[in-house]
Amino acid sequence: MAVRIHPTAEVSDQATIGEGTSIWHQCQIRPGVRLGQNCNIGKGVYVDAGVQIGDNVKIQNYVSVYHGVTVEDGVFIGPHVCFTNDMRPRAVNPDGSPKSADDWVLSETRIQRGAALGANSTIRCGITIGEWAMVGSGSVVTRDVPAHGLVFGNPARLRAFVCACGASLHSDHREGDLVVARCEECDTLVKIPAQVWESVR
């Protein structure tokens, strides 16, 4: 399948774009980026140098994915999601001189397979959002999110667990240190560590 790049997009010759991927109006894809197959990159998206993005990823309008962020397969990133990559950002050094690339410490962020980030959420750097997790719109995520976790709020807190289909999971039975949860819609069973399950607020 052909790669589709809108004429207004700026895509570096040093970026790798997978088959079937679409890059829409006014995007900027910088050198060293790897975009997987069958991705959909919405209007005004900025992908910083060296960012790695998996297959079947959907990034909605006006998202900036900064250096140090890794996005695995099947992730959904809603419009205006904000990533960061520096825990102590400053424009200048204490002596007033402009900061250079060597004057800051990169904090890496990983968004794991199938996770979904709601519109206008802010993702603090240095955390991992687990497989099939879901972040509510407008949330400020400041800590790791477990697999299948549903978080929302400011700061975002773990509120429940969701299936890969997006529906709620409910405790079915225990297997040792695991809670076996059942999806209320598709009847899928998901195993979640009991300690994590019991941390829901």
From TrEMBL:
GO molecular function: acyltransferase activity
The keyword Repeat belongs to this UniProt entry's keyword annotation: yes
A Pfam family: Hexapep
Keyword Transferase: yes
InterPro entries: Hexapep, Hexapep_transf_CS, Trans_hexapeptide_repeat, Trimer_LpxA-like_sf
Gene3D superfamilies in the cross-refs: Hexapeptide repeat proteins
Source species, domain of life: Bacteria
Keywords tagged on the record: Acyltransferase, Repeat, Transferase
PANTHER family (UniProt xref): ACETYLTRANSFERASE, ACYL-[ACYL-CARRIER-PROTEIN]--UDP-N-ACETYLGLUCOSAMINE O-ACYLTRANSFERASE
Record-given protein name: UDP-3-O-[3-hydroxymyristoyl] glucosamine N-acyltransferase
